[in-house]
Specification:
This protein is of the alpha/beta class. It folds into 2 domains: 217 residues, Rossmann fold (3-Layer(aba) Sandwich), CATH 3.40.50.2300; 125 residues, Rossmann fold (3-Layer(aba) Sandwich). Helices cover 40% and strands 18% of the residues. The chain contains 11 helices and 14 strands. Strands 7-6-8-9-10-13-14 form a 7-stranded mixed beta sheet, sandwiched between helices. A hairpin with a 2-residue loop joins β11 and β12. The chain starts with a helix and ends with a strand. The relative contact order is 0.13.
């Protein structure tokens, strides 16, 4: 049985068959961050297959839900290896990507991994087979500091950070850049959990009456809780954060005026993004707007189509193509921007957007 399967795979690699090209998808499809990713994948696969697939071969989507859990990610990775996929798009969170990366990279024929949104700096050391389609946490923190100092002209602020790798990464790069630009950080305090009580920190800030802004380096859930505590005290300073605040625009009036960084915004007015958002909304009219993992996943499928369609449909050939993307091979123009990689599998160009919540949408702001 293994002998015949090996012959079929060899024929597929040589282009002498119309067998599907198996591409894995791994993410937390049951949560609000990961569900749009799966929808975007299904959209991309249907479009690509409707226009001839990859050299006449349809894409077979092998989707596995990792529930956002590192242990589940390891099981998912093991299953995708057994399914002999040519590449994997995923995982969404840095912790799941870091847990699964060794599984994909084991052996003499590693599986290329394109993670749409794993932003922890450590992902760059996950292996030469891992490529990231988003800026890192360090880049988000630095961009936020530059915007506050130069864009808004603010000079004094405080930082509350979720005490995990994401929160610490945003805090570290934000504080370093803001101080380098001549700004003053009045306080830096940690918190834990999705429902933190930061009243003591906020009362201290209120007494000082010096803070011009408050950074919440955490996730949407904890930021909403902190926002409620800020507004309950009558504090009107801008509240700002990194891309972990994605989705906060749905929180209602309390989120109005919040600033956040983003690797992608559905309101960006480019031809590629307009086409993608229109197709996404047409196929999923009740799903809302796509998020960053969705847009990057959509880009990843089209990038794989182009790279696999220009050479042999093998993991090794794909790795070689990805490693030279943006150098010997022209960068790919996608929905999320111009895609090309540096020597560590990170994007060579990593523009970080700044958005603000206006009337329930995140609108890009003009950069200075």
């Amino acid at each position: 049985m293994r002998y015949w399967r090996a012959l079929l795979l060899l024929a597929a690699a040589c282009g002498g068959t119309d067998l599907p090209v198996r591409i894995g998808l791994a993410g937390p499809f049951s949560d609000p961050v990961g569900a749009p990713m799966r929808r975007a994948a299904e959209l991309a696969v249907s479009e690509i297959n409707a226009t001839g697939g990859i050299n006449g071969r349809p894409i077979e989507l092998v989707a596995r839900n990792d529930a956002g859990d590192p242990d589940s990610a390891i099981r998912v990775a093991t299953g995708l290896v057994a399914n002999e996929v040519v590449a994997v798009i995923g995982h969404v969170y840095s912790g799941t990507t870091l847990a699964a990366a060794p599984i994909y990279g084991a052996g003499s024929d590693p599986i290329p991994v394109l993670t749409p949104s794993s932003s922890a700096p450590e992902v760059a050391q996950a292996g030469h087979h891992v490529f990231r389609l988003c800026p890192t946490d360090l880049e988000h923190g630095a961009a936020l500091a530059t915007w506050l100092r130069r864009g808004l002209g603010l000079g004094r602020g405080a930082v509350l950070y979720l005490d995990n790798p994401y929160g610490r990464g945003i805090r570290q790069s934000f504080v370093a850049r803001f101080q380098a630009l001549g700004g003053t950080i009045l306080s830096v305090d940690p918190y834990l959990g999705a429902a933190p009580d930061v009243g003591l920190y906020l009362d201290r800030l209120a007494r000082q009456e010096a803070a011009e802004f408050l950074v919440v380096a955490g996730n949407r859930e904890d930021a909403e809780v902190i926002l409620a505590q800020v507004r309950a005290r009558g504090m009107t300073m801008p509240v700002v954060g990194g891309d972990g605040l994605e989705g906060i625009e749905t929180a209602g009036d309390i989120a109005e005026g919040v600033y956040l960084t983003a690797a992608y915004l559905p309101t960006v007015n480019t031809p590629e993004n307009r086409r993608f958002v229109a197709a996404y909304r047409s196929r999923y009219p009740d799903a809302g707007l796509p998020n960053q993992p969705a847009a990057a996943t959509y880009d990843a499928f089209y990038l794989l189509r182009d790279l696999l369609g220009s050479g042999r449909v093998t993991r090794r050939a794909l790795l070689e193509a990805l490693e030279t993307l943006g150098e010997a091979r022209p960068p790919y123009q996608g929905v999320t921007g111009l895609l090309g990689f540096d020597g560590e599998g990170d994007l060579a160009r990593t523009p970080v957007l700044i958005g603000t919540v206006q009337n329930g949408l995140i609108r890009p702001v003009e950069r200075k």
